[in-house]
């Protein structure tokens, strides 16, 4: 059963961690499961919501997929050598994705070397300062590494994970279920289009 670590730091953005984990966990019957993974037992969101982690940070070493969420303390995270050392990620055997300022973490880990990325507008100058070219699209992936920009693009990151692990039919089913009533086909096709075009556009 593929397992997903949704890495969630103190000061996290609820939309990033919760949308991704909620969509992925609708695939439990297909053998895919996500866990909120935290560096401390409890983390507090950017809006003061306290969350108890489902898995400790060490879970990232055994997870098949690792998603790095964003938050208002992302620059503090990347400046913390001890915290970064707890993320020994391996793109040769793991799918690795980042949401918005999570791109800063992937850059700090050396996983974006020569690869462009997506991020949110507030994080963009800091990502670019690290020598990473930022794309004006919501989702981009190369091989086993993906980035998404903009809070609601977390649905694209989840769609990428689902299609890569349990297949497009499962992704279509989940997206159709959660879509706003009357916008089912539009929602499904938009998400899949974002993912597939993000994987194809390498320039």
Describe this structure in words.
With 203 residues, the protein is an alpha/beta fold. The chain is built from eight helices and nine strands. The strands form two sheets. Strands 5-2-1-6-7-9-8 form a seven-stranded mixed sheet, sandwiched between helices.
What tags apply to this protein structure?
two-stranded antiparallel ribbon; 8 helices; 7-stranded mixed sheet; globular; 9 strands; 203 residues; alpha/beta
Q: What class, by secondary structure content? A: alpha/beta
Structural shape: globular
Give the number of helices.
8
- Taking strands numbered 1, 2, ... along the chain, how are they ordered across the largest sheet? 5-2-1-6-7-9-8
Overall number of strands: 9
| Main sheet makeup | 7 strands, mixed
Average pLDDT, to the nearest integer?
95
Quick overview of this protein structure:
With 203 residues, the protein is α/β, with parallel strands linked by helices.
Secondary structure: elements and pairs:
Elements: E1 3-7, H1 14-25, E2 33-38, E3 42-44, E4 50-52, E5 55-56, E6 65-68, H2 74-79, H3 81-84, E7 95-99, H4 102-108, H5 124-129, E8 139-142, E9 145-148, H6 154-165, H7 168-178, H8 184-200
Parallel strand pairs: 1-2, 1-6, 2-5, 6-7, 7-9
Antiparallel strand pairs: 3-4, 8-9
């Amino acid at each position: 059963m593929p397992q997903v670590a949704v890495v969630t730091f103190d000061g996290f953005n609820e939309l990033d961690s919760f949308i991704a984990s909620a969509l992925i966990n609708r695939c439990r019957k297909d053998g895919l499961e996500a866990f909120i993974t935290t560096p401390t037992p409890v983390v507090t969101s950017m809006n003061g919501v306290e969350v108890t982690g489902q898995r400790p940070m060490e879970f990232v070493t055994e997870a098949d997929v690792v998603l790095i969420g964003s938050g208002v303390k992302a620059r503090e995270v990347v400046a913390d050598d001890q915290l970064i050392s707890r993320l020994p990620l391996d793109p040769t055997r793991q799918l690795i994705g980042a949401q918005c300022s999570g791109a800063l973490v992937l850059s700090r880990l050396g996983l974006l070397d020569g690869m462009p990325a997506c991020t949110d507008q507030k994080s963009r100058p800091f990502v670019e300062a690290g020598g990473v070219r930022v794309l004006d699209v919501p989702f981009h992936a190369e091989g086993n590494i993906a980035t998404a920009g903009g809070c609601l693009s977390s649905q694209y990151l989840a769609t990428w994970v689902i299609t890569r692990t349990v297949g497009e039919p499962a992704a279509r089913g989940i997206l159709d279920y959660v879509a706003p009533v009357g916008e089912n086909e539009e929602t499904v096709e938009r998400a899949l289009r974002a993912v597939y075009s993000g994987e194809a556009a390498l320039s």
